[in-house]
Write a structure and sequence with these properties.
By secondary structure, this protein is mostly helical. It contains 12 helices and no strands. It has helices spanning about 5-25, 35-40, 45-50, 55-100, 105-110, 120-140, 150-165, 175-180, 185-190, 195-220, 225-240, 250-279. The longest helix is centred in the N-terminal third of the chain and has 50 residues, at about 55-100. The protein is globular, with a radius of gyration of 18 Å.
């Protein structure tokens, strides 16, 4: 017989896993940690925490504690292995994440329709956010790579970029940092726990969070359906732009299989999470 203690432990471990994936998503090129926060139902509570820290932490502390542990594990852990792992299995890793994200889109749309059926304004918000982010990401992807040197000011700027990728789901900080030529240096510094880089990096993240989280939280409170549909558009646009090129038919087949596994896993994870939340 399953006890309440067992159920609580299962939910705690699930939240840690959610956090690990969010932290890892912030590290992986092309993948957005903000999108994964939306996928796992953590985005809106996270905005509440950043805009009203004491009230939100008291309300959601059972969520934030395991997720925070997971994010740190995912962020630092992926930073240590991302170089070799992503270099060897870039296509496969992206396909798995694509399946994972697409598998949650039905759930995201259902959540967006919490207050009733979608209106024309909701679909307009979805379409506009999709088109705008897609245009920005395509321009970045087609522009030549810069070659900047990682200094304390550039670490701070990189933190600002990372901050925007958290508060605006779909913006991939990793892709932008690769474009600037700073990604590999930052990964090496984070993996080595170099505080000279980590502190200004997190200062930049904190600055963006403090400036924009309250605005986003207010938008969700006053225009939940509109904001939620816009987020779905951001998720779809960012996911389309990370679809990789395949070197062979065999790689394509493996990629489709991995995307399928990610899709099914996302649906099962959503069911398990809903079950644990209800309990």
């Amino acid at each position: 017989m399953t006890t309440n203690h067992d159920k609580s432990n299962s939910l705690f471990l699930l939240r840690i896993l959610n956090g690990i994936l969010i932290g890892g998503g912030a590290i992986l090129p092309g993948v957005s940690g903000g999108v994964l926060a939306v996928v796992f139902g953590i985005y809106q509570p996270m905005m509440e925490l950043l805009s009203h820290p004491f009230t939100a932490f008291k309300k959601h502390w059972k969520l934030f504690l395991p997720v925070g542990i997971g994010v740190m594990l995912g962020f630092v852990g992926f930073a240590k292995v991302v170089g070799g792992l992503f270099e060897k299995y870039e296509v496969q890793t992206l396909c798995l994440f694509i399946g994972l994200i697409f598998g949650t889109v039905p759930m995201l749309l259902k959540t967006a329709q919490r207050d009733g059926k979608s209106t024309k304004k909701d679909y307009l918000a979805l379409g506009l956010s999709f088109a705008l982010l897609l245009a920005v990401l395509l321009i970045v992807n087609r522009t030549g790579k810069l070659s900047l040197t990682l200094t304390t000011p550039w670490a701070f700027v990189s933190g600002i970029i990372w901050g925007f990728s958290l508060v605006v789901p779909g913006l991939s900080s990793s892709s932008l940092l690769i474009f600037m030529g700073l990604y590999e240096s930052i990964m090496s510094a984070v993996g080595a726990l170099n505080l000279g880089v980590i502190l200004p990096l997190f200062a930049g993240i904190a600055l963006v969070a403090l400036l924009f989280a309250r605005l986003i939280d207010k938008l969700f409170n006053e225009r939940f359906s509109l904001a939620s549909h816009a987020v779905v558009g951001l998720v779809l646009a960012s996911t389309l732009t990370i679809i990789p090129s395949f070197a062979s038919t065999g790689q394509l087949i493996v990629g489709i299989l991995l995307a399928g596994i990610g899709f099914v896993a996302a649906m099962q994870l959503d069911k398990w999470q809903a079950k644990m939340d209800n309990r």
